[in-house]
Amino acid sequence: MNEFEIIKHYFTVPGHRKDVLMGPGDDCALLQVPPHSQLAVSTDTLVSGVHFFADMAPMALGHKALAVNLSDLAAMGADPCWVSLALTLPEIDESWIKGFCAGFFELAEYYNVALVGGDMTRGPLSITVTVHGTLPEGKGLRRNGARVGDGIYVTGTLGDAALGLQQIQGKVTVPEQYRDFVRTKFEFPHPRILAGQALRDIASSALDLSDGLAGDLAHVARASGVRAQLELERLPLSAAMLDSVSREQGWELALTGGDDYELCFTVPEIHRGQLETALAHCGVKFTRVGRMLAGEPGVELMAKGRSYQLSTQSWDHFRSTPA
């Protein structure tokens, strides 16, 4: 098959969204944005050897490529709508493409996201995904809204994806009963779309956790001009984590490991009761892990009432070692 045959056979799927006026096949997609709505757009590139192992299962890679972008929409409180995909492939491997599409389109169908365009070219393996979502005017969750006195919260448990990566790399031994769990956390992240939507009128700020809680929360603190104080004993760690490494190692993975794609958000005390109700309806576990204080913007770590210093740093593309 050539490029155009591949696109027609694997990437042209029947459209079910009435807001897609023109999908793949023309120079541009034509999309109908609902009235009184704002458009949320996010793009991520995944590069072989940097963001994923070259031998990662294509189905898992297809899922993750879309999931990490949908997680950005979740952090904004947006409704997922459309996606474009650009693939750079070293060669045409139909078996790989079939597996990739299975993972990608299964997640797209789950969230009613339509593929509306993209590109395919030859070169080192990389994947660029752009997602588009909508939300009511003025309801977007931003990083710059946190205020002194707000509580700091996270969804789910933290560090499990990083633990899964360390298991794959042979750096830790995870008990057998947890191995599938942590590998799934790493390879098949679950974007918190419903939780993000539920937080629109409750949270003062939000973002998704892609690079570790410490580094990601620092973005909120700087954007908002406040200081974040985390109480490490409050960090939600799974049974898999606690049975695999020490509590302190678990803290480090939660704070710097990355790839969780949970939400971190701040909530004023006045909305605390609303939060309990809103996220209970979503079936999402959440934990209060700290508070926002006055002072120099940054993140302060506290353990047993004392300052805690990290031994590792959050992910940085130009500092961290590639996968």
From TrEMBL:
<comment type="similarity">
    <text>Belongs to the thiamine-monophosphate kinase family.</text>
</comment>
<comment type="function">
    <text>Catalyzes the ATP-dependent phosphorylation of thiamine-monophosphate (TMP) to form thiamine-pyrophosphate (TPP), the active form of vitamin B1.</text>
</comment>
<feature type="binding site">
    <location>
        <position position="72"/>
    </location>
    <ligand>
        <name>Mg(2+) 4</name>
    </ligand>
</feature>
<dbReference type="GO" id="GO:0009228">
    <property type="term" value="P:thiamine biosynthetic process"/>
</dbReference>
<feature type="binding site">
    <location>
        <begin position="118"/>
        <end position="119"/>
    </location>
    <ligand>
        <name>ATP</name>
    </ligand>
</feature>
<dbReference type="Pfam" id="PF02769">
    <property type="entry name" value="AIRS_C"/>
</dbReference>
<keyword id="KW-0784">Thiamine biosynthesis</keyword>
<dbReference type="InterPro" id="IPR006283">
    <property type="entry name" value="ThiL-like"/>
</dbReference>
<keyword id="KW-0460">Magnesium</keyword>
<feature type="binding site">
    <location>
        <position position="43"/>
    </location>
    <ligand>
        <name>Mg(2+) 1</name>
    </ligand>
</feature>
<keyword id="KW-0479">Metal-binding</keyword>
<feature type="binding site">
    <location>
        <position position="42"/>
    </location>
    <ligand>
        <name>Mg(2+) 4</name>
    </ligand>
</feature>
<dbReference type="InterPro" id="IPR010918">
    <property type="entry name" value="PurM-like_C_dom"/>
</dbReference>
<keyword id="KW-0808">Transferase</keyword>
<feature type="binding site">
    <location>
        <position position="72"/>
    </location>
    <ligand>
        <name>Mg(2+) 2</name>
    </ligand>
</feature>
<feature type="domain" description="PurM-like C-terminal">
    <location>
        <begin position="147"/>
        <end position="296"/>
    </location>
</feature>
<feature type="binding site">
    <location>
        <position position="119"/>
    </location>
    <ligand>
        <name>Mg(2+) 1</name>
    </ligand>
</feature>
<feature type="binding site">
    <location>
        <position position="208"/>
    </location>
    <ligand>
        <name>Mg(2+) 3</name>
    </ligand>
</feature>
<feature type="binding site">
    <location>
        <position position="210"/>
    </location>
    <ligand>
        <name>ATP</name>
    </ligand>
</feature>
<dbReference type="InterPro" id="IPR036921">
    <property type="entry name" value="PurM-like_N_sf"/>
</dbReference>
<dbReference type="InterPro" id="IPR036676">
    <property type="entry name" value="PurM-like_C_sf"/>
</dbReference>
<comment type="pathway">
    <text>Cofactor biosynthesis; thiamine diphosphate biosynthesis; thiamine diphosphate from thiamine phosphate: step 1/1.</text>
</comment>
<feature type="domain" description="PurM-like N-terminal">
    <location>
        <begin position="25"/>
        <end position="134"/>
    </location>
</feature>
<protein>
    <recommendedName>
        <fullName>Thiamine-monophosphate kinase</fullName>
        <ecNumber>2.7.4.16</ecNumber>
    </recommendedName>
</protein>
<feature type="binding site">
    <location>
        <position position="259"/>
    </location>
    <ligand>
        <name>substrate</name>
    </ligand>
</feature>
<dbReference type="Pfam" id="PF00586">
    <property type="entry name" value="AIRS"/>
</dbReference>
<dbReference type="GO" id="GO:0000287">
    <property type="term" value="F:magnesium ion binding"/>
</dbReference>
<dbReference type="InterPro" id="IPR016188">
    <property type="entry name" value="PurM-like_N"/>
</dbReference>
<keyword id="KW-0418">Kinase</keyword>
<feature type="binding site">
    <location>
        <position position="44"/>
    </location>
    <ligand>
        <name>Mg(2+) 1</name>
    </ligand>
</feature>
<feature type="binding site">
    <location>
        <position position="27"/>
    </location>
    <ligand>
        <name>Mg(2+) 3</name>
    </ligand>
</feature>
<feature type="binding site">
    <location>
        <position position="27"/>
    </location>
    <ligand>
        <name>Mg(2+) 4</name>
    </ligand>
</feature>
<feature type="binding site">
    <location>
        <position position="44"/>
    </location>
    <ligand>
        <name>Mg(2+) 2</name>
    </ligand>
</feature>
<keyword id="KW-0547">Nucleotide-binding</keyword>
<feature type="binding site">
    <location>
        <position position="51"/>
    </location>
    <ligand>
        <name>substrate</name>
    </ligand>
</feature>
<feature type="binding site">
    <location>
        <position position="211"/>
    </location>
    <ligand>
        <name>Mg(2+) 5</name>
    </ligand>
</feature>
<dbReference type="GO" id="GO:0009030">
    <property type="term" value="F:thiamine-phosphate kinase activity"/>
</dbReference>
<dbReference type="GO" id="GO:0009229">
    <property type="term" value="P:thiamine diphosphate biosynthetic process"/>
</dbReference>
<feature type="binding site">
    <location>
        <position position="72"/>
    </location>
    <ligand>
        <name>Mg(2+) 3</name>
    </ligand>
</feature>
<feature type="binding site">
    <location>
        <position position="315"/>
    </location>
    <ligand>
        <name>substrate</name>
    </ligand>
</feature>
<dbReference type="GO" id="GO:0005524">
    <property type="term" value="F:ATP binding"/>
</dbReference>
<keyword id="KW-0067">ATP-binding</keyword>
